[in-house]
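Protocol step 4 of 5: obtain the predicted structure for the target chain.
Materials: sequence only (see below). No template structures provided, no constraints applied. The aim of this step is simply to have a reference model before the mutagenesis design in step 5. Sequence pasted as it appears in the construct record:
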Amino acid sequence: MSELLNVFPGIADKQYFQNSETKEFWFHATAVCKELGFQNPGRTLDMYCDDDEKFQDIVNGRVVWFVSEAGCYGLAMAAKTEKAKAFKRWLKHDVLPKLRASGGYIMPTATSEQLEVLQALKNKSALQLTLS
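Step 4 output (structure tokens):
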């Protein structure tokens, strides 16, 4: 999710929250749509988001739409702004090829501690495969 906030910083300072049960992030849909260059959030959500990727709630007496992280990615893939094009290019030329080739993607900004944890998990998985 941090990459989403890095590419579209305008949604980072807007209202978003994490569902305590599912741990899924939900973003203020109007802010996301504005950041991606969409003019009509309601119509945009109807066109590009599945029902499980959006919901509305009453906040301070007003109807507010929220969109899930998956919904944000769908909107980004449909958007035509330069930021969205850069995001799509990063996905298509960096993330997805590495996922296909290695089964994982590590952000270039990963810390040495994060890399050590990943290596430990990889070693544990290899050991479990050997023992089974």
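Step 4 remarks: The helical segments are 2-7, 29-35, 41-48, 69-78, 82-102, 112-131. Strands lie at 16-18, 25-28, 54-59, 62-68.
Proceed to step 5.
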